[in-house]
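Fold this sequence, please.
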Amino acid sequence: MTTILDVARASGVSVATVSRALRGLDRVSATTRARVLEAATQLHYVASPTATSLVSGRTRVIGVVTPFVDRWYFSTLISAIEKSIRHQAHHVLLLDLEESPNRRLSLTRDMVSKRVDGVVVLNVMLAEQEKVLLSDLRLPTVTIGNTYPGWSSVRIDDGATVTTAVQHLVALGHTEIAYIGAVLRPEAYGAVPRERRDAFVQAMRDAALPVHRGWVRLSDWTAGDATVDAMMLFSEERRPTAVVAASDEMALGVLAAANRAGLRVPEELSIIGVDDHPLASVFGLTTVRQDVRAQAAMASAMLLRTIASPFPPAVEGVVLPTELMVRDTTGPAGRG
């Protein structure tokens, strides 16, 4: 296997000069650099990533902190981040904090110290000691979903997104509307569930509509759990004519429950979700679309710019728009 010493001998320069030339550093003349590159090409030399990291102090690895891996939203973000930074010769170190649906592991020094050049935090509600840890390690950090002072972020307006869903149902004449997507403990989910639930309640009040006791249902944000919640909702003597689900996965669970309960959609029950999950169009689900891959690409670009900059860049807070996608699961109230 060809070593850097072989390249140095072939080009007639020192190992240090070869290293500087291959890394594009200054103090190397154009003629010498060309000679080194030609020798490296002829000898099929590939620099050791470990050795390069030791010299530069950079790992070319980005840490992605996530509360879940097997949920569509998070897996899509992770995949899109990896593809975005791959083209910049960086790689992903996945830091999965999931321990249970409502409980997560803590971010520790051993997970990130000297292992990553920066961190993307995916909708995790960080504890104070975790924020201090990243700050003490001087790790550039960008968040998706949640926001923190001093860190750049990419997100949607979760409140406005759910308000759009409620307003769509109200415009169709619905007054008896339920909500699925509240959580007991936010540690594993971040602030998004609370923001969406609060927006639902406020949008109902703005429309002068009541929020019925028991119609704001808990869920672990999975289709299976939402199915159970919805079946309980539909078994009551008084049931809603429409349901807002805080995610499309939960909305599909509500759709399954409606089918089991013999409710016609949308004649007897309208259902709307949030996300535009790939299965939403397959099942004709009305939803409020967010561009998850665009969020990932933007956050990745922000982080790489921060890492490359010799000066602390200005903090950016980008809010991407969402879009109502009307399909088959919502219709006028009273058609049943």
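Residues 123 and 145 are 5 Å apart (CA to CA). The domain at 61-155+292-319 is CATH 3.40.50.2300 (Rossmann fold).
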